[in-house]
Amino acid sequence: MIVLGIETSCDETAAAIVTDAREIRADVVLSQIADHTPYGGVVPEVAARAHLEHLDGLIRRALDEAGIGLGDLDAVAATGGPGLIGGVIVGVMTAKAIAAARKLPFVAVNHLEGHALTARLTDDVAFPYLLLLVSGGHCQLLVVEGPGAYRRLGTTIDDAVGEAFDKTAKLIGLGYPGGPQVETAAAEATDPGRFTLPRPMLGRPGCDFSFSGLKAAVRRAVEELPKPLTPEDRADLAAAFQHAVADVMVDRCKRAIRTFKAAHPQGGALVVAGGVAANKALRARLAGLAEKEGMPFVAPPLRLCTDNAAMIAWAGIERLRLGQTDGLDFAPRPRWPLDPTAKPAIGRPDVGAGVKA
Ligand code: KG4
Ligand code: ZN
Predict the structure, then answer these.
(1) The domain 2-116+304-321: what is its CATH number?
(2) pLDDT tens across 275-324, in order?
(3) β-pair type (2-7, 75-81)
(4) Does the Cβ of 198 fall within 6 Å of ligand 1?
(5) Of 161, 187, 206, 218, which residue is most buried, by most CB within 10 angstroms?
(6) Phi and psi for 149 in degrees, rounded to 5?
């Protein structure tokens, strides 16, 4: 089975060709960073226009790299949500057009499921597994029982962790997108113990996360420093922030592992996915935790952690194997929780299974 995957839910336009033999035949990603940098963040209208402008060419490139034509495809999968709706519409409409013209099955993929199932594409991980999904819009712990079968153990009650990285980068004067720049700065810290930042939710019951207090503490630390900040200030603050995040992640994962093991005594892997999973310091801490807990640890290669279309094609393949496809009347979804039955996070009855879910 050869499937075309399309991803347009945020600021990366991407197309990929993947087979059901777990072979990535092409994987092209066009980052829109330069388009959004002047604004210090992603502007939805700018993103949607850029997707529209580039998607056709990227699909052509992916087909050429794979050495195939549209006639060789068995199906088309596109991110159907959640995400910035203008971009999602561009991807879904393009996929539907190809599916209609070529009489191919169409699969609307949940972007989060793309991240969640990446470890099966790269490492053939067996169900069930415990997933830490950490991206720009999400921060969740989930038990993955199968495609479409997710049980959420915890989520953020305010900011997503990637958002916290991006905002911290802005506060300390690093560019956008912040995650990779915070990581680079942190590696250059000369006095990583210079700033003491809080560890929100550490030791609390449940598996929920919170990052707004951490962000506020970074802001206060910046306010107290003489301006302009020196490169040393930036590096030490970045290191302190990254360390606090890692401490919280390890604490929350430890609790989730207890719940996971109680429900699945036969075991399973700890898997990390999403853009923040590209962070090497965080990966190392999680790998250490998994080892201590006697669980295999799986983190996809860096380029498959951040947004890409190979993960969308793969999630499409998993759905197609179960005989699941979508009609051409599928409506793009700005929100699409993986676990629709999940209760609201503690302290945020207004969030529930919607925003950040
Ligand atoms: O999964 P992703 O590419 O897009 C979303 O679906 O959100 O994640 C993007 C997020 C951004 O917030 C970015 O700053 C963060 O992932 N990120 C990182 C790193 N690389 C990307 N955060 C920390 N360390 C990194 N190396
Ligand atoms: Zn993503």
Answers:
(1) 3.30.420.40
(2) 999 999 999 999 999 999 999 999 999 999 999 999 999 999 999 999 99
(3) parallel
(4) no
(5) 161
(6) -120, 95
